[in-house]
Design the sequence.
């Protein structure tokens, strides 16, 4: 029996470039071009400062991890094959290992397809086979999603709505995610083809188990590097994850913190 699990997520990502802008050699005063150049320069400085602040904040978080409840290792292999300009097939393998219990906590395989339509709209259909260290929690999920992208001068905005139909009976959930990401390509921080990046994610989750609502929040802060090797785009990051469950019906609030080494390999063909 599949139960509907809706989720909505927002993604905000940005790219930064420090390439010098060309200046006009025309000595005649032209108000409009001068204003445009000034606006571009101001916008670039603002984005640059935001990126450095994010980088500083995540660096301070990771250099002072405190007492993590658990250390984990997350690895993923992602494949994307374009059938044409609008449609693509995708596959993903995920493995999450706990250093505390010395066993995997999640293994999943995802297969799906996406299709672009209209302007910057993308629809997707994904089937996930998910296994955990507790066989009673193994399940198959059917995921449908719809996303819309906007491109700005130095920022990309992505809003995604997702609905999941889960194998568990009498179980459903709604999840909201906000993500901010900045890649510092084209800056003095980039070296030998390696680009540093930082991201912040906030999850708001409401689960319904046996008609009992249970809420939780989750934050993820990452500091990583991306580069190309073996024809793949590779991302290596340190992830600081905190999951907080609110007090409900006599149960006390609970907060768990995880320090995670996160590695992703992505191939497109």
Sequence:
């Amino acid at each position: 029996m599949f139960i509907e699990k809706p989720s909505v997520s927002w993604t905000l990502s940005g790219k930064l470039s420090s390439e010098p802008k060309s200046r006009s050699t025309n000595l005649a005063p032209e108000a409009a071009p001068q204003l445009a150049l000034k606006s571009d320069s101001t916008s670039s400085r603002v984005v640059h400062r935001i990126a450095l602040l994010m980088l500083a904040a995540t660096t301070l978080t990771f250099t002072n991890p405190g007492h993590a409840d658990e250390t984990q290792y997350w690895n993923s292999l992602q494949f994307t094959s374009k059938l044409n300009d609008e449609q693509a097939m995708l596959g993903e393998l995920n493995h999450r290992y706990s250093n505390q219990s010395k066993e995997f906590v999640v293994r999943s395989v995802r297969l799906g397809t996406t299709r672009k339509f209209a302007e910057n709209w993308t629809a997707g259909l994904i089937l996930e086979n998910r296994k955990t260290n507790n066989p009673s929690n193994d399940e198959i999920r059917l995921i449908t999603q719809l996303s819309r992208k906007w491109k700005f001068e130095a920022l990309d905005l992505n809003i995604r709505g997702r609905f999941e139909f889960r194998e568990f009976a009498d179980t459903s959930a709604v999840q909201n995610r906000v993500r901010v990401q900045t890649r510092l390509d084209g800056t003095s921080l980039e070296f030998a083809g390696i680009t540093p990046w930082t991201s912040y994610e906030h999850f708001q989750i409401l689960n319904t188990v046996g008609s009992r609502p249970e809420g939780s929040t989750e934050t993820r802060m990452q500091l990583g590097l991306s580069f190309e090797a073996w024809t793949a785009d590779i991302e290596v990051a340190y992830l600081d994850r905190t999951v907080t469950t609110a007090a409900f019906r006599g149960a006390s609030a609970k907060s768990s913190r995880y320090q995670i080494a996160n590695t992703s390999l992505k191939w497109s063909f």
Remarks:
- The chain has one domain: 8-17+32-111+129-137+170-268.
- Residues 31-63 form the longest helix (33 residues).
- Residues 1-39 have pLDDT under 50 and may be disordered.
- Helices lie at 31-63.
